[in-house]
Design a protein that fits this description.
Elements: H1 2-13, H2 16-21, E1 23-27, E2 32-36, E3 41-48, E4 54-64, E5 67-75, H3 83-95, E6 98-108, E7 111-120, E8 125-133, E9 136-144, H4 150-157, E10 161-162, H5 171-185
Antiparallel strand pairs: 1-2, 2-10, 3-4, 4-5, 5-9, 6-7, 7-8, 8-9
Length: 201
């Protein structure tokens, strides 16, 4: 499912003009790369946690035509919050005033999180991915405002890659997920399995 969606976005939005504009940006200090259609503006801000505390966050953003592309990286440090609390709060905050169309498990290689599809009251559409990884919350959102290209938001959201290796699951948990995928279809990590954690990437 993930690979099919990304391939479709790359095919439709990946013509010569799009290929000239989009490029990968690398942020080794924060262990990720992502593709933007232009140089992002970077700012430091505060992110409010579920318990009311605030932590430092960096926001990378591009607004182009009728689309907005944003990556937010919040420093969770020693907040003591578990992954489900962090992800659930982020999802709730993002979906305020919107209709949640999709809320499913998500994965970038061995980093596991959530994926949301949102329909805003203003007619905007968003694709969001959330990850609690290495003491940070990663929140990537591609938003198509009314009249914006929904394939651009998909292309952006799917472009996130974590660098430096590692996982937010134990080796035992990953083996269990792979075994569940194998049991479902007889093939390890089959593309197209209903659980997005089973998709190859």
């Amino acid at each position: 499912m993930r690979l099919i969606a990304f391939a479709l976005a790359a095919f439709v939005a990946g013509g010569p003009a799009a290929a000239q504009n989009w490029q990968e940006y690398s942020y080794p200090a924060y262990s990720f790369t992502v593709a933007f259609p232009a140089d992002p503006q970077i700012e430091t801000t505060a992110y409010r946690l579920a318990d009311g505390r605030t932590v430092e966050a960096r926001v990378y953003a591009v607004r182009q035509n009728d689309s907005v592309f944003t990556v937010m990286v919040a420093e969770l440090g020693n907040t003591g919050l578990d992954e489900s609390a962090v992800i659930d709060h982020a999802a709730k905050t993002l979906s305020e005033g919107s209709e949640v169309k999709i809320n499913i498990p998500h994965r970038v290689y061995q980093v596991y999180g959530r994926q949301l599809s949102l329909l805003g009251a203003d007619g905007s559409r968003s694709m969001v991915a959330l990850f609690d990884f290495n003491g940070r919350l990663y929140q990537i959102e591609g938003k198509a405002l009314r009249g914006g290209n929904p394939l651009d938001m998909l292309r952006f959201q799917q472009s996130l890659v974590f660098t430096g290796g590692g996982s937010n699951r134990s080796a035992e948990a990953i083996r269990a997920i792979r075994e569940a995928c194998r049991s479902a279809t007889g093939v390890a990590n089959p593309a197209g399995e209903d659980d997005p954690r089973c998709e190859r990437r």
